[in-house]
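Q: Convert this sequence to structure tokens.
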Amino acid sequence: MIINENLEYVVIGKFSYGWLEIQVLRKLIPKQCELKEECNIGLLSNRHILIRATLLEDYVHLLSKPAFYITQKNW
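A:
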């Protein structure tokens, strides 16, 4: 089944070496990527996430850097 969704301001993220639980990523990504508004984060596969920004400014900010490094203690 194909569902037509609003995929405006969407960025796909990839993890090279491993990833955290989705609940942890939903807390860390907006803070560490310095996003100004809320964003929706979901899993696409075991190494890819979908980040849907609500602001054009956040979308441009995510695309403006070649990589973001997500850090957490004890990981």
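The radius of gyration is 12 Å.
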